[in-house]
Structures are given as C-alpha cells and as structure tokens.
What does this fold into?
Amino acid sequence: MAAVAAVPAVRLSLGRPQCLRCGPGPRPVPAGGAAPRPCSTRAAPQGINKPVIDRIIRVDHAGEYGANRIYAGQMAVLGRSSVGPVIQQMWNQEKVHLNKFNELMVAYRVRPTVLLPFWNVAGFVLGAGSALLGKKGAMACTVAVEESISDHYNNQIRTLMEEDPEKYKELLQVIKQFRDDELEHHDIGIEHDAEATPAYSVLKTAIQLGCKAAIFLSERI
It folds into this structure.
C-alpha cells in the first residue's frame, strides 16, 4: 500500500501567494483591477487587547459598508456617465475591503455596529445626493470621505504599533493596504475636479463632520 505523503501546513500571511481557501498558485484578481487580497482563515492571535481590536474592526467594517453604499448611490445617478467607470473601479476596491472586514469580524468574534441599517440608507443618500450635484459633486464627496477614512486608518496604525506591531502584524498590513487604496481614491477625486465643485469647502467640511460622528458612534454601539 503506497504511503501517503504528509501535507505540509500552510502558514497564512498577507505576503504569501497561497492560502487554505484559495489553494496553491496566484490568487484571483478582483474586478476593477484591485490588487489581489489574502484569504485568511486563521484564528485571532492570543492575548490581544480585545476592547481595542473590537472597536477597530467594528468601526472599519461600518466604514467600508458605508463607503460601498455611497458608491452605490453615485452609480445609481452617474453609472452611465463618462465618470461611471471611474466610480465603479473605486467601488470594486471597496467591495474587497468590506469582504475582508467581514472575514476579520468572524475571526476576531466582533459584533457589527447596531447602526448598520442607518448607514445603509445614509450612505446611499449621501452618494446619490452628491452625484445629483454632477460629476464634480460626486468627486468632492469622494475626496471628503476618503480623506477622513485614511486619517482614521493612520490613527489605528499608530495605536496598533504602540500596542504590539508583531502581534497585530496581519491586521496592520490590512489597514495599511486599505489606507493606501483610500488615498488613491482621494487623489482620483482631486484629478477629476472635485475642488471645482461650487461651495467645495463647505460641502467637504459638512461631509467630514458627518464622517467623524459616524466613526465615533460606530466604535461604541
């Protein structure tokens, strides 16, 4: 009877080209040209600061959920316009972000914010409302939101670095990559004349105040 070779354990890491769910070989590239993302089924590390990690994952999941609803609203209005493909590409990346935080919520056993039904409606209304101002208005919304999210991610990176960068290595890599994606979206908005929107400063300030309130609430409830 032929001996059965032992299957080597696969160590999950953001930098590895394979994982337990995807199998060997390169991972599939998500729609819209986003960079391939890791599929992690690893359990949460032991000895974590659970209150801090719960807040981080809960609010980030809520933020990516809200971002998806904003882009959905923008696509409902501008999907067939010349800027539609640009919005769709950014939305595709946000879908990848949301899927990853869905996985992390399970791995770290974090409950979602109870405000998700509200963010569902509010995000879509913000996206559609900004798009009704025209292409520049939609891009102004993108700049305001993505700037707020990238700043928030930077704060989380500092927190995790102070806690234990080795223990939270995977989470740090995820947040850093998504931070970079949000900055890219911000720059796309600037390139598409966001700052030429009438009352741009007022609109940007109002949206960012809303983002700060959403972050504060989603971390806690």
Observations:
- Residues 27 and 37 are 8 Å apart (CA to CA).
- Residues 1-41 have pLDDT under 50 and may be disordered.
- The helical segments are 50-78, 84-107, 116-132, 135-163, 169-191, 200-220.
